[in-house]
């Protein structure tokens, strides 16, 4: 195994949904990367609102990536997923053909302010009590999420096994990190019974390579439906995910 660090740096924490989407693609493709822990929202050292990080990503959000070899820096999970796939020729998850690619982009754009509301409506209020998210905002986010799930159930997933065809693409990774986190084996904060096609798709996504390694953090944290997890248990879940990640990355680097 080489002692040199991988060229690709991923900034973020495994508990972040969009960070997990990027981690999943890298696990799936067995690409070595270094995760540099950046705490979302913090102004402290290693915080996403610290001037050092803001100089890389002015939005102050995770994930971002940086390439040691080229100095290239990129923010926004969906831009990162598209870039990594294009740069590495992973056309199975992000087709080169314009119409097939546009179909993937369609979902990636739809995701924001629709499916992404799962975190605001159901997860953040439980794990970030400090944010004191008003109930009216939570309820609006949940209503938007449910309309989005209805569109997936009757539209996208009513016709094909995965969102954009019979094989998973980066659209599925982006969608699953939001929707999948709500399942009984993870946070257990949502009932999928009204969405049978979404439930079928969630089961299929468990079989996509990299699923388990990406979701160590949620398996470790477990059910949060009754009781909010402590900051310590969130920190420990992130650390457990980090240690599994290090084992995996050592394997990839040795290949
Ligand atoms: N649209 C962004 C959203 C990223 C995002 O919301 N990240 C959260 C963590 S899950 C964050 O960095 N929050 C910190 C902050 O806004 O200060 C993306 O997809 O990359």
Characterise this structure.
- By secondary structure, the protein is an alpha+beta fold.
- It has two domains: 8-91 and 230-254, Glutaredoxin, CATH 3.40.30; 98-211, Glutathione S-transferase Yfyf (Class Pi), Chain A, domain 2 (Up-down Bundle), CATH 1.20.1050.
- 52% of the residues lie in helices and 6% in strands.
- It has a four-stranded mixed β-sheet, covered by helices on one side.
- The chain starts with 7 loop residues before the first strand and ends with a helix.
- The mean pLDDT is 96.
- The structure holds glutathione (GSH).
- Residues 16-18, 40-41, 48-49, 60-63, 76-78 line the site of glutathione (GSH).
**Distance separating the two termini:** 8 Å
How many extended strands? Answer: 4
Oligomer: single chain
Q: With helices defined by DSSP (H or I, 4 residues minimum), what is the helix count?
A: 11
How do the SSEs run, as a string of H and E? EHEHEEHHHHHHHHH
């Amino acid at each position: 195994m080489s002692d040199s660090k991988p060229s690709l740096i991923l900034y973020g924490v495994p508990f972040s949904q969009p960070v997990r989407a990027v981690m999943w693609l890298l696990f799936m493709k067995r690409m070595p990367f270094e995760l540099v822990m950046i705490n979302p929202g913090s102004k402290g050292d290693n915080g996403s609102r610290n001037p050092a990080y803001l100089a890389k990503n002015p939005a102050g959000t995770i994930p971002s990536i940086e390439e040691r070899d080229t100095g290239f820096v990129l923010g926004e999970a969906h831009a990162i997923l598209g870039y990594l796939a294009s740069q590495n020729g992973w056309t199975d998850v992000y087709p080169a053909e314009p119409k097939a690619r546009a179909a993937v982009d369609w979902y990636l754009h739809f995701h924001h302010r629709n499916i992404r509301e799962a975190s605001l409506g159901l997860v953040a209020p439980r794990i970030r009590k400090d944010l004191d998210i008003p109930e009216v905002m939570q309820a609006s986010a949940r209503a938007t999420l449910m309309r989005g799930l209805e569109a997936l159930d009757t539209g996208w997933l009513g016709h094909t096994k995965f969102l954009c065809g019979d094989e998973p693409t980066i659209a599925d990774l982006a969608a699953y990190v939001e929707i999948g986190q709500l399942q009984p084996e993870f946070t257990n904060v949502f009932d999928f019974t009204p969405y049978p096609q979404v439930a079928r798709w969630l089961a299929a996504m468990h079989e996509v390579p990299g699923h388990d390694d990406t979701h160590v953090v949620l398996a470790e944290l477990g059910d949060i439906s009754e009781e909010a997890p402590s900051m310590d248990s969130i920190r420990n879940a992130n650390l457990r995910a980090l240690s599994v990640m290090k084992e995996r990355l050592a394997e990839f680097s040795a290949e």
